[in-house]
Amino acid sequence: xxxxxxxxxxxxxxxxxxxxxxxxxxxxxxxxxxxxxxxxxxxxxxxxxxxxxxxxxxxxxxxxxxxxxxxxxxxxxxxxxxxxxxxxxxxxxxxxxxxxxxxxxxxxxxxxxxxxxxxxxxxxxxxxxxxxxxxxxxxxxxxxxxxxxxxxxxxxxxxxxxxxxxxxxxxxxxxxxxxxxxxxxxxxxxxxxxxxxxxxxxxxxxxxxxxxxxxxxxxxxxxxxxxxxxxxxxxxxxxxxxxxxxxxxxxxxxxxxxxxxxxxxxxxxxxxxxxxxxxxxxxxxxxxxxxxxxxxxxxxxxxxxxxxxxxxxxxxxxxxxxxxxxxxxxxxxxxxxxxxxxxxxxxxxxxxxxxxxxxxxxxxxxxxxxxxxxxxxxxxxxxxxxxxxxxxxxxxxxxxxxxxxxxxxxxxxxxxxxxxxxxxxxxxxxxxxxxxxxxxxxxxxxxxxxxxxxxxxxxxxxxxxxxxxxxxxxxxxxxxxxxxxxxxxxxxxxxxxxxxxxxxxx
Length: 506
Description:
The chain is mainly beta and 506 residues long. The chain has helices at residues 3-20, 302-307, 318-323, and strands spanning 25-28, 31-33, 40-44, 47-50, 54-61, 73-83, 86-94, 99-104, 130-131, 146-149, 161-169, 172-180, 185-188, 195-197, 208-212, 217-227, 237-246, 256-257, 259-260, 270-273, 276-279, 282-294, 326-334, 339-340, 370-373, 376-383, 391-398, 403-407, 412-416, 419-421, 425-444, 464-469, 486-503. The strands form 8 sheets. Strands 2, 3, 4, 28, 29, 31, 32 and 33 form an 8-stranded antiparallel β-sheet that branches. Strands 9, 10, 11, 12, 13 and 14 form a 6-stranded mixed β-sheet that branches. Residues 3-21 have low confidence and may be disordered.
């Protein structure tokens, strides 16, 4: 045996020993997605794949006199409380530094309600939200940076919706909290700010705030800025993200900067609005469909921009503003921590063909990823920013379909790290081609197939299913393995694996 072969074998054995010496991860009966690398032990001939959503219908067009047609996306909330026996969706967007809302029962068809709250030019027939006394709720920096539905168990019905406005001045930024029962009419929680921070650039954007079921506390991911060194006159600061938390919504921890994959505190891109929220089918995973601003990149000529007829005319150079940068959306994830994992640096929502989506701050996702059918989930994206055709469009993902483990025609294997589970049945979300397939093997912690659960015991699965119980020759029951360290081996050919879950149901 040559020295080169010996070295190769030693490297392989070393890697295998590292893989198989790992401590087991207790996943209980949680659904697990392949949006990060936590559970991946080894990939053999397969890869992580980022999926792009497909565009659907226009949800909201900014076509009313009180709506300015730029920088308009805030959030989409799925309210489980019913109105006329139907749940409702609420789409909040910025309208000339005022906060407006559209409503829907299905997330597809939207209407702008005439709320009769805020008087504008002598008329209350508009969809502007405001205070209970009819005033606009504005910040020093413009509209509210955040509005969210408080899902904490036991929250008072009159306080289900919470919002922020900001006061800037010497000594930093102060956050004023507002409460509402319907999401339209708000009252101050108190005059005293609930947050006061001197963090540079803090809250200069729409923040992400939610009640964490996993952490049993309020969690906020906010924007701040880091000065770039050496200084760059065209791009002096880098927009990044910090995290805060609170048990009672009144007393908050100091902001803790997030790290970004392997690059640390200063990622190579601007994260304008991080849009971090718990994934609705796996709330222990927080998904950030982050708005990435390419600060100094200009995709269009001035002639092309002039043809778009910019609508922001109160500034000195509307054409230059319209094309001074471009933007898209990227995906990051975190598991209740101060660290984002970035499996993919590529954009998940791209501007696409044509010129209208290559304008400043187009292609920003609104905060909120929601189910709109049993097999699909939707996100809402600003398009044609700064133009008369400015609108919010719905984009559709397959359920759990942000990313997958994908196998080519030649096939390959995914082997997980050691897991400890609770449940009776293994369910997978997968899709194959007509000639592709999927088999699943359960191994012990050392990688040895467990009798009755080998690849040979698992009939090949073909098709495209959101929820498929895995069957072996003995059936679907895996309860005798619950609580023991095991590995899952997925043998795949021309197929995608999106998620898996051990469940009590068959």
